[in-house]
Amino acid sequence: MKAIQLEQPKAFREIDLPEPAQPGPGDAVVRVFRVGVCGTDYSGYLGKMPFFSYPRIPGHELGVEVVAVGDGVTNVKPGDKAAVEPYINCQRCYSCARGHTNCCENHQTLGVHVDGGLRPLFTVPARKLHVSTKLSFEQLALVETLGIGLHAINRSNPRADETVFVIGAGPIGLSVIEFAKLAGAHIIVMDLNEQRLAFVREKMGVTETILSKGVLEDDVKTFTDLTNGKLGNVVVDATGSARSMVSAYNFVGFTGRLVWVGITQDPLTLTQPLMHRREMTFMASRNALSHEFTRIIRLIEGGMLNTNPWITHRAPMSDLIGVFPTWLKPEAGVVKAMVEVN
C-alpha cells in the first residue's frame, strides 16, 4: 500500500508499505479516510517542531473506520467510525498513574514520534478510538484539533464574567475560541492576518478583534481600551512564536492566567516584576485527555459545535506532495486543510 513519508524537512516522498497484520490483543486495525493538517505538520515540514523525528509518516488528526480488532477489545467493532486520540501513553509512569495521560513520560504522538495516518491502514491501541454513529469522517478528523482548544480552556477555567484574549487565529486559536464561547466568556482575538480575523468575525461571531501591526505598545493600548483597563483574565497564546509568547504576558490582568498552547524551540526571556505585581499564573497546555474527546464528539453530535466553516482546502493523498507547500502561504487563506486518503 502507498504512504506519504516526510523523509526530512521539506522532503516528502511516496513509499510502499505492507498492509498491517491481524491486530494483537487490545489493538485495532483502522482504515484511514480523512487526515487533517495542522500547525504541527507544517512545523514538522519546515523542521521547526522540536518533538518531530525523521523519517516520519505524518498525520494525527484522523477520521477512520475499524477494520479488525484483537482479543479483549470491547469498545469498538469492525465497521465503527471513529476519531483517533493520537497520544499513545504507556499507562505505567507517574503522569499516567495520576490521570495526566496527555503528558505521559514515555509519550508517543502518532505522526510526530511514531508513524501516523497518511497511509490507508494501520494498527492503533483500540482504547484510543472514540466512536460516533453520526459524525462524518471529516468531522471525526477535526476532533483532535478541537481537543487542543478544549484542554487549554479547561486548564484556564474562564468564567462567564471574564475576558479571554486569544492571540493567534489559526486552527488552534479557533478551537480555543469555540470553548471560550461555550464557557460564556467575553472573547477578543488578535492576529497579524486580517483574513483570519474576518473569518473569526463572520463565521464564529466574535465581534472584537485586533489586527496587530507588530508594535506591542499599540496592541496593549488597543486591548486596554477594549477591556476598560482590566486587560485579560485569561490570555491564550496559540501562535508558536517566541516573540508573541514572551509579549503575551503584557495583556494579562491582575490575578490573570496566561496559557501557552503553541510551542517553540527558541528561548523565552521576560522580566519578572510585572508578573509578580499582577500575581499572574503561567501555564502550558499540552494535547488533550480522553474525556475531552468524548465531550467534543457529543457536542458536535448535539449541534453545539458547528464544524462546517472550518475546512477550507481539500486534496487527495495522491496530490499532497505537490499541494502541501502551497498551503503554507498566507495568501492561500487556509483555515483547515483535509487530506482524502480513502
Please give a structural write-up:
This is Enoyl reductase (ER) domain-containing protein. Residues 24-130 form the Alcohol dehydrogenase-like N-terminal domain. With 342 residues, this protein is α/β, with parallel strands linked by helices. The protein contains ten helices and 17 strands. The strands form four sheets. Strands 3, 4, 5, 8, 9, 16 and 17 form a seven-stranded mixed beta sheet that branches. It has a six-stranded parallel beta sheet with strand order 12-11-10-13-14-15, sandwiched between helices. β11 (186-191), α5 (194-204) and β12 (209-211) form a beta-alpha-beta unit. α3 packs across α4 and α3 packs across α9. The termini are close together.
CATH A-level architecture of the largest domain: Alpha-Beta Complex
SS summary, helix count: 10
Determine the fraction of residues in helical runs and give it as a percent range.
25-40%
Helix and strand element order:
EEEHEEEHEEEHEHEHEHEHEHEHEHE
Brief characterization of the structure:
The protein is an alpha/beta fold. It contains 10 helices and 17 strands.
